[in-house]
């Protein structure tokens, strides 16, 4: 079965929204507001400076995706590429889909002159952590904090 990675297209929007909602439910038992989520995913296509989605296809059928966003590092004079919103359809898991998506991100990041690739992971998700470590990623020494701003719907996602 052939696996390919491509840039997401606007026609992928319904699937990206559904996958984001499924990922939030599976990982955090959070029910996301679909209208907000749809606007959020569409916002990436509307303003490419925000990032981009990649889609993995197996034999022409979309089986997973991720979002890449950018963080400027003044310390390193370059961008970190953040991997977010990772989702694989259940039947595609443990089949090398994330590995292929990660390789595509790393290749594009290096070609663009990025200084590194980062992602965050739920503290209890040992399987994902093992996957990331198996790809050569290392746990960093930073903890993450957030604060919701008034009028933004309550949570700081």
UniProtKB/TrEMBL annotation:
Record bears the keyword Acyltransferase: yes
Domain N-acetyltransferase: 3-157
Entry keyword Transferase: yes
Keyword terms: Acyltransferase, Transferase
One Pfam family, short name: Acetyltransf_1
SUPFAM superfamilies registered for this protein in UniProt: Acyl-CoA N-acyltransferases (Nat)
GO molecular function: acyltransferase activity, transferring groups other than amino-acyl groups
InterPro entries in UniProt: Acyl_CoA_acyltransferase, Bact_Acetyltransf, GNAT_dom
Protein name stated in the entry: GNAT family N-acetyltransferase
Naturally occurring in which organism (per UniProt): Rhodanobacter glycinis
